[in-house]
Each structure stands twice: as structure tokens, then as C-alpha cells.
Amino acid sequence: MIIQPVSCLRGELTLPGDKSISHRYAILGAMANGTTRISQFSQSEDCQSTLRCLKKLGLGIRQSKNEVEIQSAGWKRFQKPRELLDAGNSGTTVRLLSALLSASPFASTIQGDDSLNRRPMERIIRPLTQMGARIEAVQDEYPPLRITGSQLRGIHYRLPMASAQVKSCVLLAGLMAQGETTVVEDVPSRDHTERALPFFDVVLTEAEQQLKVKGPVSLKAVQMEIPGDFSAAVFFIVAALLVPDAEIYLRRVGVNPSRTGLLTLLEDSGARVERTNPREFNAEPVCDLKICFSHELLRRFPAEISGKWLPNMIDEIPALAVLATRLERGLRVRGGEELRKKESDRIKSVVVNLRNLGVQVEEYPDGFFVPPNQQIQGGRVQTFGDHRIAMAFAVAGLIATQPVELDHPSCVSVSFPEFFERLQSLS
Ligand code: S3P
Question: What is the CATH number of the domain that holds 192?
Fold first, then answer.
């Protein structure tokens, strides 16, 4: 795939359904009694992995275009899968489904592709084991995970890192456990699970960074609609902010504040972004966005991002690294050790590729520093099979001096199969 520099970006897009939310509604629908209908479900490979695993647990799943229908007799009726559960590239699938498997009365094995089989699972093995699950990792803490389900009991658990996957895993397990489960979250992470639970008839109480559920509970099947994925929108937002003659419209974008840290920072720094038509889908805030080239932003954007800002924009760092090349004060990202544990080591992937495109950058164990006012040259990008690296560096190609070539562009289908068509339609 070769991306050519452009001088203009114009047009209008509707984003695919949010990937994080799609996983959650599918899993909650599978746990509920009856037929759950979900519209604007993500067509990403990751969410298809979740649906495939749920089918293997005996659930009736029908899909047509962006609509998904899940028929279930409730979480007590999951069936022992006849084969391995394959989570593909999806960390959310393995970490959330492990909760369901831990409470089901059979043994099963869940694994992923080469990248997922190198991602840390101790973070879910520890709390689920405390709740009474038996989980064996074939090697160290990595998938495949062999899970023998049992009656779980509620726990009080303080999250050792900001992770919505771990938080959601413990809360889901708590719904099937005896007694109360409390999750303490010192640094807030995305809260889609918390917002969804009441729609499935689950009582969740929240006070002073503590989330509580009382199990076991029966969940009610419902009808849900999924907002557009902010983490997909961000590539177009950054592109429009940087291409000189740009004016684009993004429709139906999910703007849950626990996801939109980067948007807030951009707005506070003078980016020409307009939010219109605010509304809600199932307690998830949604709006339309108009984005135009923004010179002032380059002068005012903060020179350093770290600490509590990071979890709120963790998936947006590759796109932000591309924006950083143009900032008048450069950008230092610190406190991002978690970035090394994503679909690729995202600190390394960003640093290697900025250098491949002639940009100076310094690497830290927990982040990187991009010096101010740099011009992206052309060159070859190694995606490392990471969808967000491919999409971020496709945007780099739009503002480079020469074409940019991506080595494995099809990896975008992990979250956004139509990404290149949509990008082309604007340029
Ligand atoms: C996700 C949470 C984040 C994020 C990932 C999706 C989720 O991971 O990076 O892309 O759906 O809960 P962590 O929970 O590891 O921070």
C-alpha cells in the first residue's frame, strides 16, 4: 500500500461501530436470558473473534450487515466448547471471556494469534484465581489459557494498573459469583461496561473509585445501538488538523469522556473542532464532528503528556506521535509502560517508523520524545501487524514530502476493515 501526500481533505464519513462497546454488548447479550439485538456492531476482526468464541459456547448468533442478534438461555447454560476458543488478535476477547469461562462448569482453552499469545494475562489470572477459578497458562502468564470453571466468590480488588479490560473482567466474573465484588480503580479507565450494565438489568453501585456488583444475577436481553468508534475517528481527526486545506465531517462519533482525552486536549489547544448534534445511545454520549486544518493548535498543544491523561488516550498514541512531528514545542510522552504491551510494542513501533520516515525521535522505557517542527519524509513503514500503527502511518503519508509505503496494510481489519477506502474517499 502506497500513500501519496495530499494538499486537501474534504468530505463526510460515518465511523464503524465502537470496538470496545461491541465486545461488551455481545458478551453481556450472551450472558442474558433471551434475544439481544445490537445495531451498528463493529465489523472488525476482533469483534468477529468474540462472536465466534460465543458461538462455540453454544449461543445462537445471527448477523446481517451491522446488526447482530444473540440468543441465549443465560450464562448458566453455556456449553463446553468442542474445540479451542480462538481470540485472534483481540486482548479484550481473551480477557473478558476468561471471566465467563471461569464461572462455567467445564474446562476449556482460549488462545490467540502470535501477538496475543505474547501479551500479559497475569493481570486477569490473579483476580480470577482469588475468586476461585483455576487457570493455567501453558507458558508463564501467556495464552493459551486452560480454564477450569467453578463456583466463583466475590472479592475486593484494587486494580494494580489502569485497565478497562481487567476492570471489566472482574466485574463480569462478579455477576456470576456468590456475594459482593468490589473493584477499586485509582486511575479511571474507559467505563463502557459500567454504562452498559443497568440496561441488562444489573445493579452497579459506584462511589469513591469503587464499583460494586452483587452476584449471582440474571441479566435481561435488550436492544442496543453502538456509537461510532472514537479510536477509529482519531486518524481522520489528526489528518484533517494537519492537511492544509482540510474540512471534514464525522457523523455519529462516540464521545464518552473516558475515551476522548485527546479530543479534549486538542480542543483546549485551539484545534478547529466543532461538536454538533449531541445525543446519547444507551447512556453513551454521541455527536457529529467538524474538523478543519488548525495552525494555532501546533503552537499551543502541551509539550508533555503523562500520568492520568494517558489511560484516557492510550489507543490514540500512534496517531498523536504523527501529530507530534509538527508541534512547535515537540512532544514528550512519559508514563506509558503499558504501550509496550499492546498489539505491538507501540513505543518501539512508533520510534522505528518515525525514524524510517526521517523524523528524529528519542526512545524512553516508558515513552518517547519528538523534537519540534519536523517534516516527515517518504519511506517504508513496518506495521508490525498492528492496526493502529498502520492507520497512524497512513496519516503520516498524507503529510509527508514523498510517498509512504506500508508493509502489511491488511492488518487494519483488526479494527477497521474499510479504513483505506474511507481515507481515499476524503482525499
Ligand atoms: C480496551 C481497553 C484498553 C485498550 C484496548 C481496548 C477495552 O486496554 O487499549 O484497545 O476494550 O477494554 P487495557 O485495558 O489493557 O488498558
Answer: 3.65.10.10
